[in-house]
Write a structure and sequence with these properties.
- The protein is of the alpha+beta class.
- The chain contains 10 helices and 9 strands.
- The chain has helices spanning 132-136, 138-157, 162-179, 191-206, 214-221, 225-236, 240-258, 263-269, 275-286, 290-297, and strands at residues 11-12, 24-31, 46-47, 51-58, 60-65, 69-73, 77-80, 86-90, 96-103.
- The strands form 3 sheets. The chain has a 4-stranded antiparallel beta sheet with strand order 2-9-4-7, with helices on one face. Strands 6-5-8 form a 3-stranded antiparallel beta sheet, with no helix packed on it.
- Strand 5 and strand 6 (69-73) form a beta hairpin.
- The longest helix is centred in the middle third of the chain and has 20 residues, at 138-157.
- The chain starts with 10 loop residues before the first strand and ends with a helix.
Length: 300
């Protein structure tokens, strides 16, 4: 159980892998105190580039992210996407036991399954969105719960071939999510299409604070204006302009939570110099103003 801290800025946690080749850390948390509990608001926000999966064994855990504020209990599982600020606490005055799995999923995409890399890139949706699968499908939830337990058990016993067993369980977990994503939150694109767009995506990341013109990126691929617009939307599942705005607002969210910069400074740093436009785009994605977002996420 986490203890209360006086600071309220999210901590960028560096995950130390138990096995660097597997790019993961997995452990079991015990809180045997039956009368000890505290509100999630008394616990610090933190984030890390690894995806986090939780499997509750006993008791109940309160979890808060930008996407959700809920309590999960024995038998439940939950996925928290990469770099998503989150915080947890014991929900009730009872024994609590759960497994935490932090993993760099991208390191587990070998050549044979590379076309599915984009499904888990979180370019269009945070992985938090696919938690609906576990609410809708009890059988899948049970199987994912079992797989998280198996990954933990294999990492503890380290029997001969445990790396193969863990890798298999991770691949099985990815397959379950892809095949049971009835809402198509894990947008799929062909490997060659994504590879073709990579120079454009890299260019956008490098120039978010600048004015980005369609004409400039068309030159990178030697595409005509109209062909590029249609091609980008087909591959990415959203328009070129919407993608850039999404990237800018996501960067703004992180700056709001991790710096003391003013909203004006942040809007300029992410390349939106019109404050009215910045507020409009931010509210569209978060249903609140930048100030309200920061107050909500950093509330103690």
């Amino acid at each position: 159980m986490r203890t209360k801290h006086t600071y309220n800025q999210p901590v960028n946690e560096k995950v130390i892998y138990q096995n660097p080749l597997l790019s993961l850390k997995v452990w079991e948390i015990h809180d045997e105190r039956e009368n000890a509990m505290s509100s999630v608001e008394y616990h610090p926000w933190h984030y890390h580039k690894e995806v986090e999966l939780l499997a509750i064994l006993d008791g109940s855990l309160a979890v808060q992210t930008k996407e959700m504020d809920q309590t999960i209990s024995a038998g439940d599982v939950l996925i928290i996407g990469t770099s998503q600020p989150h915080r947890t606490s014991k929900a009730r005055g009872e024994k609590l036991r759960y497994i935490v799995l932090q993993i760099d999923l991208h390191k587990h995409f070998d050549q044979s399954i590379l076309p599915y890399f984009y499904c888990f890139s979180e370019l269009t949706h945070p992985l938090d969105k696919i938690n609906y699968i576990f609410e809708d499908n009890q059988k899948i939830k049970q199987e994912v719960h079992f797989l998280i337990n198996e990954i933990h058990r294999e990492s503890q016993t380290k029997e001969k071939g445990y790396e193969i067993a863990i890798n298999y369980s991770i691949k099985r977990l990815l397959l379950l999510l892809v095949r049971n994503d009835s809402k198509n939150m894990l947008h799929y694109s062909e490997e060659q299409d994504l590879s073709r767009l990579k120079p454009v995506l890299d260019y956008i990341d490098r120039h978010l604070e600048d004015r980005i013109l369609v004409e400039d990126v068309c030159e990178l691929l030697n595409f005509s204006y109209h062909y590029f617009i249609k091609y980008f939307k087909k591959v990415m599942g959203m328009s070129f302009v919407d993608y850039i705005n999404l990237k800018r607002i996501k960067k703004a969210e992180l700056l709001l939570l991790t710096t003391d910069k003013s909203i004006l400074e942040i809007s300029y740093e992410v390349g939106i110099t019109n404050m009215a436009q910045f507020y409009k785009l931010f509210k569209r994605d978060n249903q609140c103003s930048p100030k309200a977002f920061k107050n909500k996420m950093l509330k103690n």
